[in-house]
Amino acid sequence: MQHAFVYDAVRTPFGRYGGGLAGTRPDDLAALVVGEQVRRAPDLDPAAVADVILGNAGGAGEENRDVARMAVLLAGLPLSVPGTTVNRLCGSSLEAAVQGARAVESGDADLVVTGGVESMSRAPWVLPKPEGPYPTGDATLVSTTLGWRLVNPRMDADWTVSLGEATERLREKYGITRERQDDWALRSHRLAHQAWEDGRYDDQVVPVPGTTLTRDESIRPGTSAERLAGLAPSFRTDGTVTAGNASPLNDGAAAALIGSEAAAALTGLEPLARIAGRAVVAGEPVYFGYAPVEAARIALARSGITWADVAAVELNEAFAAQTLACTDAWGVDVGIVNAWGGALALGHPLGASGTRVLGTLARRLVATGDRWGVAAICIGVGQGMAVVLENVRNGEAS
Fold it and tell me: I need a surface site. Which of 109, 228, 274, 306 has the fewest CB within 10 A?
């Protein structure tokens, strides 16, 4: 088995729902980052890309018909480059990276482009077909933007509660207060804004042609504890989850270059980090937000390290309560978690978020010189994923 490395990662700015990227099709967003990722490798013959693997959570609109293959064609890559699309909901593009790493490790490929895309603004309404001809009743359009739709009536009702209601139950179970959630949200916006000011994202983010968006659109540097405390609960009248301490709806795309040791010669790039371990787990659907706890434990064990070795964590902030429940369980210094901001501020375009946390983690390790990091994400319907990275620019890969 050969090692798999992250060589590079690139993404669009993440736009707000109905905001700066709402006029751009998701397949065009995907084509942009796939093409840009290939162009950023100075010595790469695009025909050497063995596969393009993209994640997407919606799949009901303009990204249908295998958006990875559509991205290959729209990006002008050789027709010989294949593409496949995977769906593990919020973990889709982290799943894409794991599948790409497996292809490299098994020797099936030396170089793959992985990533993901989501346009929550452009997610369509769908109209179910009637059970029989000539129905006399009304029909209802169903939004595909987020969450459950067209639910099988045989599903347990507790499994299909909204993501927000599930998070309310999670924070009740683990005693996460409203104040802690709002404090974490404020931290996310502050750190995200500072990271942009410090140029942390300058070499990671590429603007989308035809738009004026140059930074993540959901960041609110001027927000305050008072403003967050004044927001009404979104899912329960007596709840604590608000629009301020939950991730927004977003549009965006991200891509990563994953390859073997031989890919350095193919691309003209030096790897950023080795993919040292990974895991995916599942449990009770209602407690999906807690699933990264076990996923990270298994991924660390498979990497041969413990939390004591970890210097950087990128945990996707679907909700502040979910993030706090995980960090509490891990017992880590919160200073190492999402040091350049998290999804509460940066945004959470479902199919692209896994690559965003993976690429940011790799860049953080290089910037600090630390050796080990964990990228993790919670996934609707009770799943969680984690990937352990080893910085190979400051120390040898084991």
Answer: 306
Please report the pLDDT score of residue 257 as a whole number. 98
**Tokens 């007596």, residue?**
238
Q: Domain map of the chain by residue range? A: 5-122+248-389
Structural element, H or E, at residue 139: none
Catalytic residue at 90? yes
326 counts as catalytic: no
- Out of 90, 189, 193, 326, the active site residue is 90
Closest by Cα among 388, 387, 395, 336 to 371: 395
Pick the catalytic residue: 189, 193, 326, 378? 378
Tokens of 49: 């890309």
Residue 387 and residue 354: Cα distance in Å, rounded? Answer: 10
Set 3, 189, 193, 348: catalytic member: 348
Q: Which of 145, 192, 273, 244 is nearest to 14 (CA)?
A: 192
pLDDT tens, position by position, 17-70: 999 999 999 999 999 999 999 999 999 999 999 999 999 999 999 999 999 999
Q: What is the pLDDT of residues 128-178, one digit of tens each?
A: 999 899 999 999 999 999 999 999 999 999 999 999 999 999 999 999 999
Helices 67-74 & 26-39, crossing angle to 10 degrees? 60
User: How far from each other are the two terminal CA atoms of the chain, in whole angstroms?
Assistant: 13
* Residue whose token pair is 């008072």: 226
d(CA 398, CA 396): 6
Which of 3.40.47.10, 3.30.1050.10, 3.40.50.720, 2.30.130.10 is the CATH number of 5-122+248-389?
A: 3.40.47.10
Region 362-371 average pLDDT: 98
- Neighbouring residues of 226: CB distance < 8 A, sequence distance ≥ 6: none
- Its sign, for the CA torsion 149, 168, 377, 228, is positive
With cut-offs at 50, 70 and 90, classify the pLDDT of residue 1: confident
* 193 assigned to active site: no
For the full predicted model, state whether its pTM sits above 0.85. yes
Q: Which of 207, 250, 216 is nearest to 32 (CA)?
A: 207
